[in-house]
Write a structure and sequence with these properties.
The protein is α/β, with parallel strands linked by helices. About 40% of the residues lie in helices and about 10% in strands. The chain binds zinc ion.
Length: about 300
């Protein structure tokens, strides 16, 4: 039977304000935690599957109540860094270590196992310095998205912001990190896009095997459902772990209380209706429950 994992990056709305150059003011009432997460847990409960939640150490513990269902649903809490600094990969080893240790300490309290076993880099941006710290903590890594077209599209978007005189916190990054293997592999901090048998276990996010279209939440919401599920067919057949990545913002729309209008302008997927989105995610989760053994990434890493 195929294996699958549902993973969600719980990025606060202030992260999106930073990407779009709208400032980083944190919100008192952040619908990521009050609206999107309850919807996510509802979908998991309906499909009876667990998930891995990559959380921000600085933000998540202030919303501990939003994570009350993780134990009951068999979910894993993993690290998405302490401050969600898009340039964390460019900091010094000491700064990186400090950030990751703070995140580990802050997130343990939310973790049903009492420990943190894995990491996903903010903005998928890695570097040898960052991955060496991930190895030092004994974590698995799930930061690589082997989708060359995603890299190209993001670089173009950052260039467009620059041309308009706005600064995005997003980084262009290294194109080789977006062209690696589709299956889990052991690698090294210096060349994480290549299987080297090294100390780092990389669990890449899944892309369609032929086209390398990323099979993540953004494409589930954007592409025709039939086409997306055809890519899922191929992935379940060809890849030993279908590692589905989504963001909590995928489960919000423009009408939800607390979603700022300037963000809706910058983030067009917020204009798609929540009922359509819930329909699509529910269909995918129920399909994975039927056709695959759905595991947390920690369980996959310990296998
Ligand atoms: Zn993130």
């Amino acid at each position: 039977m195929a294996r699958a994992a549902v993973t969600i990056d719980v990025d606060s709305l202030s992260c999106y304000r930073a990407i779009h150059g709208l400032g980083e003011a944190p919100l008192d009432e952040d619908p990521i935690y009050t609206v999107a997460l309850p919807r996510f847990f509802g979908l998991l409960a309906e499909a009876k599957i667990p998930a891995t939640l990559f959380c921000i150490g600085r933000d998540a513990p202030a919303h501990a109540g939003a994570f009350a269902r993780v134990g009951e649903l068999g979910c894993e809490i993993a690290s998405h860094s302490y401050a969600h600094d898009y340039a964390l990969s460019r900091r010094t080893p000491v700064e990186i270590r400090e950030d990751l240790l703070r995140a580990d300490a802050a997130l343990r309290a939310l973790s049903p196992s009492g420990r943190i076993a894995g990491f996903r880099a903010p903005g998928y941006n890695t570097s040898p310095a960052l991955l060496n710290e991930v190895i030092a903590l004994g974590y698995y890594d799930s930061s690589l998205l082997p989708a060359p077209m995603y890299f190209a599209a993001r670089a173009a978007a950052i260039g467009l912001y620059r041309a308009r005189g706005r600064t995005s916190s997003s980084l262009v990054g290294d194109p080789r990190a977006f062209a690696g293997p589709l299956s889990p592999y052991r690698t090294s901090a210096e060349t994480p896009w290549r299987e080297t048998g090294g100390a780092l276990l990389e669990l890449p996010m899944t892309c369609a095997p032929r086209t390398r279209v990323p099979l993540f939440g953004t494409s589930l919401n954007a592409f025709p459902t039939r086409l997306f599920h055809r890519w899922v067919d191929h992935a379940l057949e060809a890849v030993p772990l279908f590692n589905f990545e989504m963001h909590a913002i995928d489960l919000l729309d423009a009408h939800d209380a607390g979603v700022p209008p300037e963000l809706v302008e910058a983030q067009p997927d917020l204009r798609r209706s929540i009922s359509e989105k819930l329909f699509r995610f529910s269909k995918l989760f129920r399909r994975l429950a039927d056709e695959a053994e759905v595991v947390t990434l920690a369980k996959q890493a310990s296998a």
